[in-house]
Every structure is written in C-alpha cells, then in structure tokens.
Amino acid sequence: MFVDNFNPFNNMLLSSIVAAIPIILFLLCLTVFKMKGIYGAITTVVVTLIIAISCFKLPIGIASGAFVEGFFQGVLPIGYIVIMAVLLYKITNETGQFHTIKDSISSISQDQRIQLLLIAFAFNGFLEGVAGFGVAIAICALLLTQLGFGPLQAAMLCLIANASAGAFGAIGLPVSVIDSLNLTGDIKSMAVSQMSVLTLAIINMFIPFLLIWIVDGFKGIKETLPAILVVGSTYTILQGAITFFIGPELADIIPPLASMLALALFSKRFQPKHIFRVQKDVKPEPVVKHKFKSVMYAWSPFYILTVIVMIWSTPQFKSLFEPNGALAHLVANITVPGTYSEVANKAIVLPLNIVGQTCTAILIVILITLLLSKQVHFLDACRLFKETFKELWLSILTICFILVISKLMTYAGLSSILGESIAKTGNVFPLLSPVLGWLGVFMTGSVVNNNSLFAPIQAAVAHNIGTNGSLLVSANTVGGVSGKLISPQSIAIATAAVKQVGKESELLKMTLRYSFALLIFICIWTFILNLLI
C-alpha cells in the first residue's frame, strides 16, 4: 500500500462502497452491458484510476508505476505462459501427436462424459499441479474442443473443474507461500493444508458429478455413476491423505495421475450403456489404436513438461536465482523511476527472470518436441508462433489492463479497506471469511497473490475473535478457488485458448452461478466448522 490512509472518508462503510466500485463495474461491463473484455477492462481502469487518485490520494507517480507493473506482469509471466501453452498445442497438432493423444483418449472410452472426466477433471488437475497460472485451462480446453466439445462449453467445464486443483496449483505454492508471511498465531502451511481437507474433500467429490450434470443432466450421472465414483474417490482420498500427512506440494501431482490411471483401467471393464456424444448428430469416429511406442511419443511433451516444471519448482533450483545464487546474474531487478514512496518506504521493482520462469520450461519442451519431430522444423515453428501471437495479443492486452486494476486497487488501499470492512463483522466473520478469498482471486487472478494479500488479515482477525486461524486461512484459500471460475484473468486465458476472444462476457455468465454457488457453500461450511472446531 502506497497511501497514508485507506479510509479517506473516515467512514469504513462509505470508503468500502467506493473501493468496491471497480469490481462491481467490471462485472457489470461483462454481464449487463455485454462489453468485450478489452473494453470492460479499459473502462474499469479509467474509473479505478480516478478513484485511486482523487479519493484515496494515490500519487500520480505510483499510479503510473502500477500501469507499468500491470503490463509487465501481464506479458511476463502470464502472456508468455499462454503463448507457450497454445504454441505447444499447435506444434503437437502439426506433428500429429495431438491426434494420437485424442485417439488414445477415445480408445479408453468413446463416451464423451468419460472423456470429460479424464481431461477436464483429472488431466486438468495434474497440469494445474505441475504448472498452474492458466496452463491447465488453456491446454485442457483445447483438448476438449478437439474431442468435439463447443469452444465456450469446453472453457467453462475446465474453469469449473479447476476448482478441485486451484488450491494447490504449481507445486502447492498457494499454500506453501504462507510460511513466508509470518502470520499472527504462527500459522504454518502444514496446518492450513490439513484444515483445507475438511472443505476440499467435499468439493473434490462433488465436481465430477457437477461436470456430468452440466453436459447430460441426472440421466448422465445415473449412467456414469461407477466411473464418477472411481475418479472422484481416488482423487479425493489421495489428495486428502497427502495434504494431511505430507503437505501441499504433491497434492495436485499424485492424485490426478492416480485418478486418470484408475479411470482408464476401470473403463476396460465398464462402459456406459449408452454412448453419449455432445454433438448428437455426429457419429463417433472408429477407434484407432496406436502402438505403445507411438502413444508414448505423442504424450512425451506433457511428461517432459512435468519433469522440467517440477525441477523449475524445487527450492534448490529457485535458490540459484537468489542474490547469492549461481545464476543471480541472470536476474535483473528493474526499479520503476518516480515510484519511491515514503509511506511504503520502497519503490516498485520489476523482477526480470526469464530463465527461471515456468513459461521457459514450456519453451524448452517445445524445443525438445521440435528436435524429436521429423515433420515440423524451426521455420514451421516460427510460422506457428506468428499465428499464435496474432490470435492472442488482444487477450494478453486485456490481461495487462486487468492487472493494472489489481495493482491500482492494492497500492491505493482499496483492497485493504474491503478486507478490513469484512473483518469488522466480528464473530460473524467466519461466515464471510471465504468472501475475502473470492475477492482476492477475482482481483489478482491468483490464489498465491490472494493468500499474500488477505491471509494476514484472516490470521489477525482469527486471533482477535479467538477462533482457529488455520481454518480461516484455509477458507481464504478455498474461497479463492471459487473466485478463479470468474477471475478476469482466467476468463481471458480460457477464451484466448479456444479462439473466442471477445466473448468473455458470455463465458463469465456461464460460470458465474457456479462460482457463487461454490462460494455460498464454502461460507456456510466454514461457519459450521468454526462452531465445531
């Protein structure tokens, strides 16, 4: 925060109402006014800028720095990740690997409800675990469209399914970051991880039912119930055991892999009575079986990606880029001129670390895929990159403006006053605790950033009202997962991946009710747990 006072009207209610205007306005732009994402984002930036400077007295220099930082982070790492993820898809499609992947999934089952569980639930969870930051949604939405799902439908299903994995994405970072926050009550990531099981176990078991219900109603649930129970219980039980006894790091790695394997093996003995197709008038293609070697080669970009991203995510690798690390010279910390604040006693600094980025790990996978391929060469990759950039530049620009809104709200204290207002509810706070997480992810697009922003408030309030701090911080995390369904960043990434740029408002409307429904459940359940614990 770069302002002297985040309660400029000396009235918390009034200041909170003014601070909430950007969030409400952006939702209205995408839903009621049906504006394209880019226009809604620009409109909200202008209004947020006026509020931040005129009401909350954010210095113009800091506001300018927020613009620079928002665009910087929109390009690196988010834009970089989206481009690399889609480029990886295009290259594997050009090499024929993606077609073999599709055939290998179809050989497990031609029923698209089973395929939905495999891709949107299990594989989505796995990619969220190894990469996070939109990679899972982009790749899995593309996979579903290749299997016959509608573009926006595929994006919506992947966003909803991501609710099972969002709390532990990118090697458990959203929860493990808690250890660096020095929270009131000495709350640690392990305690939060253990507490999250009480809520996530219910959500994880429910999501597969919800996915099938969305595409085929209760009839679909009845016909695929054994498969739903296999994939859901395998994922839920394993994730619960890992998060409770080991910690958050492997919670999105082993469970989704095991659930994919369990469903694949189970499908050899069980197939639904009626084969369901999303496009009912399109008959399923004949099953094409490939040799084991061909299937392994087709999937190679993804298991190579897993290995490389896991290496990139280890503390040992990250330590190489720290000030005294062996690769510290590859990191440039760029101070934005004119942004030093005596209030915050710091300036805005942009860390430029290309090599250490997750997106660079995807780039390495792309280069390996090109080296292994006989069909696609470097010039083909350049052509595909040009195509990808043309398709995605507008979405990346939208994401940049969204991040500008987030930075302005954070630096001007709008986020702080919203958090403090909810915290003032006293003993009712556990009921509203997940709302803070929902707001945090809506504003920042990241469960990691959400916990960095609001976990200290959750811990402080828990200490003041005498309740379990780990419960409220876990509620902040899980509430944030429900916000990821409608986070502008997630929406922009999903629409870009399925080539539906400009239809962000449609996708938002499709996911909004599910986000609210999950949030309401998490709020009520957290309140009940607070009474019981």
From TrEMBL:
Key words of the record: Cell membrane, Membrane, Transmembrane, Transmembrane helix, Transport
The UniProt transmembrane annotation reads: 12-33, 39-58, 70-89, 116-144, 156-175, 195-215, 227-247, 295-313, 348-372, 392-411, 431-448, 512-532
Bilayer topology reads: Multi-pass membrane protein
Tell me the compartments it is located in: Cell membrane
- Key word Membrane present in the record? yes
Q: Does the keyword Transmembrane apply?
A: yes
Q: Check the record and name the Pfam families matching this protein.
A: Lactate_perm
What's this protein's family per the entry? Belongs to the lactate permease family.
Q: What does this protein do?
A: Uptake of L-lactate across the membrane. Can also transport D-lactate and glycolate.
Q: What is this protein called?
A: L-lactate permease
Organism, as annotated: Staphylococcus succinus
